[in-house]
Amino acid sequence: MFIQSAVRFFALFFLVASLTITAAAQQTPDAASQPAQGSSPSTSPQKKDDTESKSQGTSAPATADKTSQDKNAGTSNSGTSNDRLFYTLPNFLTLENVGQVPPLTTGQKFKVVARGSFDYVQYPWYGFLSGISQAENSEPGFGQGAEGYAKRFGSAFADGTLENFMTGAVFPWLLRQDPRFFQSGQGGFVHRTEYAVSRIFVTRTDSGGTQFNYSEIVGSALSAAISTNTYHPRAFITTRYDPATNMLTYIHNDSDRTLPNTLSVWGTQVGYDTITIVVKEFWPDIHRKLNRKRKVEVSPGN
């Protein structure tokens, strides 16, 4: 269980944290390069590039505003976004550049969590995790072969879905807390990272105040306890034939339903959520940088 958790944790860390840090470190050079384009004539066919150049010194380029509007489309109606991290992973509970917004209703909290939990991207992701677990023979009580893989897939899917609902819908509904992440976008890399990490422990209430994030901490703990002690393998006995003695050897396999395993799952979930929320803070910057690079590549005359 520990090896599997560590593999999941560090695989995600090196995949997304490195991209986040790289993009965040390049924010200043990108911003500095904007004035250099200020001399381009207003009659240039590259209308969007000119709009960016003429808006230097303002709060944000026009294309950045458009990106924010596109990503937060539907915010005024549903209070959620249609964004995806790296154009793939559901990011429906993150809002960028918004102030006071109406709280989500109970129905909205459950609907947006269900929308993200059963998104098409989740199935190959859980399939990948199940493959790692199968290769390591993690939780041997599930066995091997197609049946073992199916059990691992179902367990991984249930673990993730249960945690999503506990932290994003059930506890926010019971405690009237806001499950959304409000991106800061202010200050340097360290300041913004500290802000993002702090959102694991501090959250908004439906009334607009701040409160300890019971939904994340307690919700993830409860989901870890439920999953570990219900459908994960119990202790079991296996037999192995010993040709030297011509006898069967009985082997006792420990149960996965233990307190250490529960704590390990809990810690993995909180760690995963922490890395994810830091990525969410810097994703708008990465998004804008990727859009600018794409626009330069397709611009005529380059």
How would you characterize this protein structure?
This protein is mainly alpha-helical and 302 residues long. The chain contains 11 helices and 8 strands. It has helices at residues 2-25, 27-33, 47-54, 62-71, 75-78, 106-117, 122-136, 145-175, 189-198, 214-228, 259-298; strands at 84-85, 89-90, 94-95, 181-182, 202-204, 210-212, 236-242, 247-253. It has a two-stranded antiparallel ribbon. A two-stranded parallel sheet has the order 3-4. Strand 1 (84-85) and strand 2 (89-90) form a beta hairpin. The radius of gyration is 24 Å and the shape is elongated. It starts with a helix and ends with a helix. Residues 1-7 and 9-76 have low confidence and may be disordered.
Name the strands of the widest sheet in spatial order.
1-2
| Main beta-sheet annotation | 2 strands, antiparallel
Report low-confidence residues grouped into runs of 5 or more: 1-7, 9-76
One letter per element, helices H and strands E, the order comes to: HHHHHEEEHHHEHEEHEEH
Strand content: 5-15%
Q: Which class of secondary structure composition applies to the elements? A: mainly alpha
What's the total count of β strands?
8
Overall pLDDT confidence: 79
Helical proportion? 55-70%
What spatial form do the alpha-carbon principal axes imply? elongated
**Rg, please?**
24 Å
User: How many angstroms does the end-to-end distance come to?
Assistant: 52 Å
Counting H and I runs of at least 4 residues, what is the number of helices?
11
